Give the backbone structure.
Amino acid sequence: MKKIYSIAIHGGAGAISKNVSVRDKDMYLAALTDILFYGNGLLRDGRSAIDTVELVVNRFEDCELFNAGKGAVFNSEGKIELDAAVMDGRDRSCGAVTCVTRIKNPVTLARMVMESSPHILLCGKGAEQFAKEHGMKFVRNSYFFTRKRYDQWLMLKDRGNTALDHSSGLMNSTKGTVGCVVKDIYGDLAAATSTGGMTNKKYGRIGDTPIIGAGTFADNSTCAVSCTGTGEEFMRTVAAYEIHALMKYKKIPLQQALDHFTANILKADTGGLIAVDSKGNHAYSFNSKGMYRGAAGSYGFFEVKIWE
Amino acid sequence: MKKIYSIAIHGGAGAISKNVSVRDKDMYLAALTDILFYGNGLLRDGRSAIDTVELVVNRFEDCELFNAGKGAVFNSEGKIELDAAVMDGRDRSCGAVTCVTRIKNPVTLARMVMESSPHILLCGKGAEQFAKEHGMKFVRNSYFFTRKRYDQWLMLKDRGNTALDHSSGLMNSTKGTVGCVVKDIYGDLAAATSTGGMTNKKYGRIGDTPIIGAGTFADNSTCAVSCTGTGEEFMRTVAAYEIHALMKYKKIPLQQALDHFTANILKADTGGLIAVDSKGNHAYSFNSKGMYRGAAGSYGFFEVKIWE
């Protein structure tokens, strides 16, 4: 019997302008293609769902183009604060970190929290203390410095505004959350999400990314989901878990559940989400102008897209 | 037509020993009675749901007997860290704070976040900066010092253990999360939860209390819910939102939804939850030994309880 596997990725959603150079567009599509190809290969080679989502999100975190890890945006103090979460659909094991500043790959720390602590969500200095005790490699906060992000922050800082990575006119310099959801050849699901948050965010604001059920969720019986966009709307709607509930209790298929959610539940122009189900289907849906995304799998499908 | 209102409160759940003096038992029942009487009166007098849950939880926060505000437990560094959340069932407005150390009434700050910021969840020093800018009164961390909590922390500290307020043998000195859910005479629902977390907790651990959908949720179309117990299990199960989903998509009545949840979904000996629905029913359910709780309403019912 053919082994079924499936993967979907996103690199953020928002008001992504189409008025962009071919070179920039191709750069993003190439990065998405590269990361999707990598993840698809891991699954084909028999890597577990939980390994795959972590490794794929690590790639996003190491890429300057996306708002996570290396490419993260600056908060109001000109610093980087990172959030990430991971969830294993087999038993709903999960881990997450928020407001960490010196961790190169926050999603790997989230997995460490999942596997080596009785807790789910660790915050700030406490999370970094945990990381240190568990032998995680630290980077200086300056590792995350990129010219583009800095210029973008300078633009917003004095106005007191916040911005998602790619709101109005900031295309090219900013790109939201990143995430990956997969079904592996053993039938297991997993989801992971990682972000640098909103440019110029204040007050230790925590978004949906590290919140299990909001930005990230996985359960083998239904689906694995990762969200991106204006975090507060995904928190208010308990977005990722709502997809699970629609499938489990209303018996709505994956793509329909996502479409219903972005059309009727999520506030307009908020963002989008990606998902896979236990049958190996993938789906994405968004109500913003665009979403960096891709999907592939054992059925030979391979696609990367930015707009409709 | 008679105006229907309904309120339920909790002061924590866990392995509450029955081997306790009549004096101690009466002290808790008297505190619960007092707080419930106060909240019931507010509703009868026409206060809104959102006002009532805040004011009732303020009373809990100011009472030394419960693990929230004044009575909060110590973390591993011998300090107090407080979390709270509030949600308005009319439009799902919500606000929450986590890891604040100098705020007398965290649930009031959570409401300020809901009403005066575009965000939902603010953390630590950032949350306190927001509080300061909005004129909130601060207390010194020493305000929260109580002999009982300190002794309890000393007991656990060297063992490296964490404890919910009333795990094994700690009855009398410790009492978990507090919460309140109501339906007001205008038909609106609201929920609020506040906590000092787990004694001797480390690493900036965040539990379910400030997580919308996990420890706290309200939606006029279904129910308002507040949870208490081992936070991680309520996060993994997205507990409060699961009750909403069971009611909305499976059409299961309130009490049945809670009972199904604590019997079949929530891990054994984890804790419990309280809820009211849009018809004015109240419900509680728990799978721990006990839960400090009470319920009252326009139908003349008034009850406070600790065990079954």
